[in-house]
Amino acid sequence: MAFLLSLLIFLLPGYAITRSLRIPFSRIEESIFAFALGVGVFDLGTIFLGKQDIPISKTGILLLVAGMTVAPIALRWVYDFFKNRFPETRDLKEESAYRFRKESSVFASTGRERLLFTAILALTVLIKVVYLSDTAIPTATDLGHHMYWSKLIAETGKLPNYAKIGIEERDGTYALSEPKPIADFIIGEHLPFAGIAIVSGADFFSAFPVDFLLLVDLLSLLTVFAFSVRIGEECARTMRLPLPPFSFGLIALFLAGPLFTLASPEAKFVSGGVVGNVFGNLFIPLVFLALFRSFVERNSRLFAVGIFLSFTLIYIHHLSALVLAFAMIGALIALVVARRNHLDSLARDMKQLVVAPFPIAAFLFVGLFFFTVAMPTYLEVHAVGTALGTPEKSTRTGLSFFQMSKSSGQARVALAIAALGILLFAKSFRRTVTAPLLFGWGVTLIVMTMWPNLLFLNIPSNRIANYLIIPIVLLAGFAFTLIPGLISRDGERPLAPLPGKLLSLFFLIVFTFAAWDGSNDNRTTLPDKPKSEETVQVFAASRYLAPRLSMDDIFLKDHIYIVADSWMKLFFMRDYSYPLSRGYFKRYDDAIKKREQCTLLMISSPNLPGGKKCLADLGVDVIAVNPAYDAAQFGKSDTFSRIYASNTIQLYSKFNR
Amino acid sequence: MKLPERLRKKAFHLTRELARTEAGLVVLFVLLFAGSAFFLDGAVRRDLDPDTGKNWWALAFVDPKSDDLSFFIDNHSDGNTFSYTVSRNKTVLESGTATIPKGERKTIPLFSGPLTGGKTAITVADTAGKKQEIYRQ
Questions:
Q1: CA–CA separation, A235 vs A18, rounded Å?
Q2: In angstroms, what is the C-alpha Rg of chain A?
Q3: Model ipTM?
Q4: Which of A85, A211, A227, B28 is the most exposed place for a label (fewest CB within 10 A)?
């Protein structure tokens, strides 16, 4: 209950902003935007607090939330007061659009449509929760790493310094290095979890991190739904649609929801704790929805919302921000090409959107914050340079078409390609915003996934593929809904008139294939057998050791065979790399990047000269291993004592030696 | 506590109206998420409970940095009888049994002394025959 109430720290300021801006959101859209804006305001606000050395405590957060909730309302009051004093400055068009939203909405639905929405959403949630019930236990490596930083913020009340110790060789002797900056973590990923823990008192060793990621994941599905409804709304102005816009949304929700719902980046990323990607899959479509609507409705406030959310994403996840940047450029190029005969009117439209009070205020805020308060740490450590360039490894040279369709779902990819064809060749869509946006976004992501070298991207291609899901689903839903209208005998200009029954059969086949493909993926995505008994033993050993180690004691553990090992650091809270860790064997054979070998030798061969030297030079005092794999070599040692033993973890020490 | 008739009718009409609107879909989403969060919270609590559905025990020195050989057994298994043996260089110095209910820890104090000359081991076995051993060198 405390966790659910703590979500108000995002929703209150978010709703205050959406209500104060008087943007004609539907209820569903407003809920999603309120959450995302709230996360943005919370992240940037706590970064500001941290940079001013104001403790990020419960009081500080509650005051920040109260301030961020009251401020937009107060500004709105002042704005209304000014407008009432000088009526000639009122924007009647925007005011009537906001009033109109209350009277009728494209999100109005029939009873049958609401029933379908309920069924699809409930089925999606059920499948995810069944999967997560076995995987929500804190064991995931990525989530353990992220929660370390969140716990550090919650305990210290300060912004963390993203750095870690390492092992280096100096003149033939191994030593622990001073903490060196790491670019892999970004503050915006950790602040929301820290905020929830501080306000609600929630324990990081609970379901709350996974619950929060599940919420973000479900909201990204709702965003796909809302976006498709708006696409349907715009297309309805261009041609007679076979289905109402709400049904556009239902089809997209079906393709995005219960199908492939367990595969990456859906439930697997939720339980795996791939925080940045999960946030990226919410913020990217939300930014595009805001910009899409701002172009279609000529609403500069929505444009300002898009700017703010884009800026927030820069502080949440670098890869998602990079993907958004590329996708936006692709969509913009597609828009310019689509309107190449009307560039002057396009320029006028864009000027109207950009040169307006709210977007200018948003740009000013963004610039001020970036240059005077805080820059994302990955820019400070020049991480951008490593993401751009010629792909170095085979995993970064692009996926094949087969790999891409396997990753995104063959049925969805097939429909998406059909949609790209429609958008390219069907004249009906040339003047829409839908066509260049979806086309540009989709094609850019496909190129980034399959041919990254064309865009000088040096990022694992399977990670880029995780961002392809959203545009693929939007395109697939678009195709699935529109093709009947284009080829039906009843359509305005049928491309290839087909009798109704044949058409229905065709779509039944496509629907069945899509449903089979997606549910088959769910069926084959079996969760790992729950490792709760192993996990509690690892946590018990950590709880035993933590109070018995002094600040000088060095602890090494194994990552390969110990379950939930990345969570062990939360018991010690000394450094991201404490305890030191033996990684996977292939890591030590990396031909491109030379790795230290000590963490391998100290566990794999502690009795051989290499292992002994590392142990002596580094002063390692305690080692944790899984006895099923690594007890033998320690049993033969005459220097190590075994101080703790259970089925799945043993601790060996050199205390008093 | 049953609501008065008038309030119940009002609540029914409100719910029906809500179900017909977009706001009702938002409420549905909130209810589905809240239900999921409660369910997952319960699942993880059970998973992290060292006793519920678990069958394991651990053995450790109370103070691994000193000469004190006192040790404890944390019992989270279905059995509750443990036999222990203290030996130095395979010569048995002491033995005994301990009865420990599930979910509890028992500390067995032992003599302290300088740990010179070999390996001092404490071997514990449960009634199922499973053994764990800790030792000092």
A1: 26
A2: 27
A3: 0.92
A4: A85
